[in-house]
Structures are given as structure tokens and as C-alpha cells.
What does this fold into?
Amino acid sequence: MHNVSVKTLARTSLAVVFLASIALVCFLLHGSKEKETWATLTGLMAVIAAVIAVLPALRILEIQEDAWRPLPTPYFDLKSRYGLLQLRVKNFGGGVAYDVHLKWKAYPVDHMGNKITSLDHISVLLPQESASTLVGSSAQIVKELSQSRFEGECCCKDSTGRKLRHKFVCSVDAHQKQLVLD
It folds into this structure.
């Protein structure tokens, strides 16, 4: 939330400066046209141009911040271990994810019917790295979980200590067709 308020404050400040400059330009254009008036108008036009030029730079900064934000996401992995289905948490973001916590609405279960909780707490997850645990043999467990959809929320901290959270959905639906072709 802190980041959102800083962005809102920056955009609001730029809008106030822009509108005040426009109002002052209008006021000066309706008054007497002396040498100082034209110098002031030139300065105000420079301020207006600067405000307009800053807006794309702010957007680029936001895009860069998003690219460096960690994004740990759980998913079912059928490809990395032939014949086995794994539950994997991978950091798809560009920053290191610290203190990763998964909060499931309903826990996925392994081949023995036990809740999978081993990935609920991960201390550090580097960008594009993952942690995984065995769910079961792919053909058997995919049939058992074919109608299941596991939802939850992932919470973590970035390198500045700011808490981030996002919702996720895990399902094996996409893997059913792969088993037929395999």
C-alpha cells in the first residue's frame, strides 16, 4: 500500500503543478504584456513541458519496479520428472522472494491421501528458481485430481522487506491431454 500512496502523491503533485502553471499562463496572457510577463510565460511553458515529460518516465519506473518484484507461484509439474507429478513453487518474478507463505483454501493431497504442507513455508526463493515435492505417479494422481482446483494466496517479502501477496489457482486439467499423448 505504501508504494501505491507514493505513486498517487507523485501524480497528484504533478497534476497540481501542471494545473497551476496553466492557470498562471492564462492569467498572464490576459494581463499586460511587458518584458517580465514574457519571461515568466517562457518559464511556465518550460515547467509544463517538464511535467509532461515526467509522466512517461514515471510509467517506465513502475514497469521496472514490476519487473523486479518477486512472484512465487505454485503449480503442478508433470514435465521435470518423467512419470511423476510434483507440486512446485517457482519464483517467476525478477526479485528474490523472502519468507514465502502459501495459504490454501483446500490443501492438495499426495498419492497416499496426505495433505501437502511441505511447501507452505519457504525462507528464500531466488528468481526463476523453484522448490518442489512429490504428489504421486502422474497417471494415477492426475485422474484422482482431475476435477480438483486448488486456490489460495501467496505471501512473501521483497528485498526491501515490503510484504507482497497475490492469489493463485492450481489445477492438473492442462496435464490430462499430455498423458494421452505421452
Q: What stands out?
A: The CA atoms of residues 7 and 58 lie 9 Å apart. The mean pLDDT is 84.
